[in-house]
Amino acid sequence: MRILITGASGLLGLNLALEAAAEHEVYGTAKDHLLNTSAFTVLQSDLLSPGAVERVLDRTQPDWVIHCAALANVDACESDPVLAQQTNSDLPARLAANVARGGARLVHISTDSVFDGSRGDYTEQDEPNPLGVYARTKLDGERRVAETNPEAIIARVNLFGWSMSGKRSLGEFFVRKLQAGVKVMGFTDVFFCPLLATDLAAILIKMLELELTGLYHVVSRECLSKHEFGIRVAHTFNLDASLITPVSVEQSSLVASRSPNLTLRTDKLAHALGEQPPDVADGLERFHRQFMDGYPQHIQRMAAQPPG
To answer: How many domains does the chain fold into?
Structure first.
């Protein structure tokens, strides 16, 4: 298959492009970052510019499109709600319409943050209640994609993994800080279901192969607090867990509101796949194995300028 992945320099986009490139012809768009890789074809494009979506689709003629590009920095969305709306809502709607006209299959990446986290254990049938600009614009993007392209897959995700900057995921944060002997906070009252980026990538490809449609929670089958996640990272990497101070999110200096309980049910996904998604323990084992195999350095070298 010929696959177009938007946001290919991001945490999910890059891991997904590398995972898919093993068996497929992959094109990845990047806006600001030069990607130095021969694993897939990189297209420099600002998808918000007029005609950019149409040009990229015309050039790549994809069978599958996986839309990872987003303004995902929660505080940046609060600072620039217009850009958040353009990136997280208007762009997905325009992409969905063009993909539908061209006959390709679309996966739109959304977020668990569409819920307010007041109770957790959310299913796809539960009514979202987004708290901030990021969550509101992502929910609007979901709804516009579903309306414009009913055959699309909409995947609500939460993930960790290795990124080009080394600073894009909570897993990387804990590894980097604990290796340096730095004390960090771990929220005891914020719960999530993080899935390793490469595991998420493999599931998204399988969902396309199975020709699924509609809304799915694509997260780990295991949910835990961010403090417990940090403790598990420390134990997996043989680092000092006592450096992680258990705190409430109210004690932090975060600007935007965070949903406290984003535990999501994966029953629908498990039924469609014929198997449960991985748990956090499985993901952390593979996260550590990637570390030992030099995968983080391999990823980070892609940010380097090519020689000459």
So the answer is: 1
CB 69 within 8 A of CB 13: yes
Burial class of residue 46, CB neighbours in 10 A (0-12, 13-18, 19+): exposed
Tokens of 58: 């015309």
Asked whether 92 and 154 are in contact (CB, 8 A), the reply is no
pLDDT given for residue 307 in this prediction: 44
Classify residue 66: in a domain, yes or no: yes
- Residue 196 to residue 39: CA distance in whole angstroms: 20
Mutual orientation of helices 133-148 and 91-102 as an angle, nearest 10°?
20
CATH number at residue 250: 3.40.50.720
pLDDT, tens only, 84-110: 999 999 999 999 999 999 999 999 999
281 located within any domain: yes
DSSP bridge pairs for 209: none
Taken in order 46, 50, 52, 53, the sign of the CA dihedral is positive
Assigned domain for 68 exists: yes
Annotated catalytic sites, by residue?
134
Report residue 56 as tokens.
């990229």
CA 104 to CA 267: how far, in whole Å?
A: 27
Which DSSP helix (H) or strand (E) runs through 214? strand 214-218
In a domain, 6, yes or no: yes
CA distance 261 to 113: 10
CA distance 212 to 123: 17
pLDDT tens by residue, 255-292: 556 689 999 999 999 999 999 999 999 999 999 999 99
Rounded to two decimals, the pTM is 0.95
Residues 136 and 128 sit within 8 Å (Cβ to Cβ)? no
Domain carrying residue 151: 2-301
HSE-CB of 40 using CA atoms within 13 angstroms: 31
